[in-house]
Amino acid sequence: MRFQLEEQWRPRSPYHLVAGSVLLIALGACKRQSPQPVSTEVLVTGSDYAFQFPDTLRQGQTTLRFANAGKVEHEMVLALLRPGVTLAQVMDLMKAGGRPDSLIEGIVGILIAKAGVTTLGSLGVDLIPGRTYAFVCNFQDAPDKPPHSALGMVASRTVPGVR
């Protein structure tokens, strides 16, 4: 009896085998896929010597682009500050000659643009609610000149929401 059941389910021709395979592939392709998160695009504009961008950054997937509207080369360093740390604290430590490593959780990324250029690439980041991000340019116009951050090319934004 067992032999008869196996015979009953055996494909009768190569066509049945192909048709069955196509059906399985089609069923697999129909399975629901989770939607991809929508990324918000934000343009950060650097000038001589400031950053301009929206006052509020939304939590979640964000694509940052950097445009240099200045007359000298600039960078946009994006850093995640440690919880409770402000940009003013970071700047005070740097002015006193200290390294801000203890106040920064990490560097998220860097974009660099020559004068008058928008970067070809972008920086993708998953912005965390309730956290503060610092935007800094550390370039100098000459070795004997102060870094752009000391000239005011710094900014920060706290992403609304609670983690």
Short description:
The protein is an alpha+beta fold. It has helices at residues 2-9, 14-29, 87-95; strands at residues 40-47, 50-52, 60-68, 74-81, 104-113, 123-127, 132-136, 154-158.
Show the helix and strand layout.
Layout: H1 2-9, H2 14-29, E1 40-47, E2 50-52, E3 60-68, E4 74-81, H3 87-95, E5 104-113, E6 123-127, E7 132-136, E8 154-158
Parallel strand pairs: 1-3
Antiparallel strand pairs: 1-2, 3-6, 4-5, 4-7, 7-8
Characterization of this structure:
It is globular and about 50 Å long. With 163 residues, it is an alpha+beta fold. The model is unreliable at 1-7 (pLDDT under 50). It has helices at 2-9, 14-29, 87-95, and strands at 40-47, 50-52, 60-68, 74-81, 104-113, 123-127, 132-136, 154-158. The protein starts with a helix and ends in a 5-residue tail after the last strand. The longest helix is centred in the first third of the chain and has 16 residues, at 14-29. Helices cover 20% and strands 33% of the residues.
